[in-house]
Structure to design on (142 residues):
């Protein structure tokens, strides 16, 4: 299965935040949207970085409450691993496992085109396995 099939069912909307926003703004957005990451982007199309709950917790441990007044660009992860709609779900899961990340932005023709979470990937894989099991049951019963 390919990433584009996941995006077809879940959509391509991605929450972004500007690099000059405060970490407090990021925390508010993460909470209100009930999500785990924001893509850092100046224009909503290019990926400058990613800021996750994990980044914020690490920042709080290092800087304390003053972290909330700092800019997102100072805390974000800059080395963002991305995928394309043509990548397989298995390759994205492998990337997530190897890099210990839970979200991978999808980039198509240089522009942000969605995001895949570990939950999306696992759900997709489970559906694929259920489909295969059903085919095997049909084959055996015939």
């Amino acid at each position: 299965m390919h990433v584009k099939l996941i995006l077809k069912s879940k959509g391509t909307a991605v929450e972004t935040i500007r690099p000059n926003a405060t970490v407090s703004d990021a925390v508010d957005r993460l909470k209100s949207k009930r999500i785990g990451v924001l893509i850092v982007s100046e224009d909503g199309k290019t990926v400058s970085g990613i800021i996750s709950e994990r980044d914020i917790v690490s920042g709080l441990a290092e800087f304390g409450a003053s972290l909330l007044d700092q800019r997102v660009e100072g805390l974000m992860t800059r080395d963002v691993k991305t995928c394309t709609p043509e990548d397989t779900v298995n390759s994205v899961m492998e990337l997530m496992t190897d890099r210990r990340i839970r979200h991978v932005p999808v980039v198509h023709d240089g522009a942000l085109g969605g995001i895949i979470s570990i939950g999306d990937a696992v759900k997709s894989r489970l559906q694929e396995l259920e489909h295969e099991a059903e085919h095997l049951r049909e084959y055996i019963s015939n």
The chain has one domain: 3-141. The CA atoms of residues 82 and 105 lie 5 Å apart. The longest helix spans residues 118-141.
